[in-house]
Amino acid sequence: QVQLVESGGGLVQPGGSLRLSCAVSGTSERIFSTCDMDWYRQAPGKQRELVAGIVSGGGTNYADSVKGRFTISRDDAKNTVYLQMNSLKPEDTAVYYCKYIGVSADYWGQGIQVTVSS
């Protein structure tokens, strides 16, 4: 069974940085390397939104609100995707979720809180 576990969230001051990780288990490295991964976030009272995505070939896309500040990357040998978040702003406060677009189904992590506050 495919499972996703996020880590690296927490409280950070405005202007600070955090690195989120999402480890995927229950799938082989070979299959993981062919699948796309996304990071989403959901702030209180708002809809879940796509933050960044990375495809199997390494191509990436970002929401306009995070371009130039966030970087998504993947390590297929570790079945892991990362989200490096720099120059964080209070409006980045949300629960962040990773999504694995599998061969026959999509899978979500449980979510991890990121709070940007002084």
Q: Work out the radius of gyration.
A: 14 Å
Give the helix tally: 1
Distance between the termini: 40 Å
Secondary structure class reads: mainly beta
Inertia-based shape: globular
Amount of beta strand: over 45%
Sheet with the most strands, sense and barrel status: 7 strands, mixed
The helix content is under 10%
Beta-strand segment tally: 11
Mean pLDDT: 96
Provide a descriptive summary of the structure in words.
With 118 residues, this protein is mainly beta. 3% of the residues lie in helices and 51% in strands. It has one helix spanning 29-32; strands at 3-7, 10-12, 18-25, 36-42, 49-54, 60-62, 70-75, 80-85, 94-101, 106-108, 112-116. Strands 2, 4, 5, 6, 9, 10 and 11 form a seven-stranded mixed β-sheet that branches.
What's the gist of this structure?
It is built from one helix and eleven strands; from the N terminus they run βββαββββββββ.
Q: Could you list some keywords that capture this structure?
A:
mainly beta, 118 residues, four-stranded antiparallel β-sheet
Give a topology summary.
Blueprint: E1 3-7, E2 10-12, E3 18-25, H1 29-32, E4 36-42, E5 49-54, E6 60-62, E7 70-75, E8 80-85, E9 94-101, E10 106-108, E11 112-116
Parallel strand pairs: 2-11
Antiparallel strand pairs: 1-3, 3-8, 4-5, 4-9, 5-6, 7-8, 9-10, 9-11
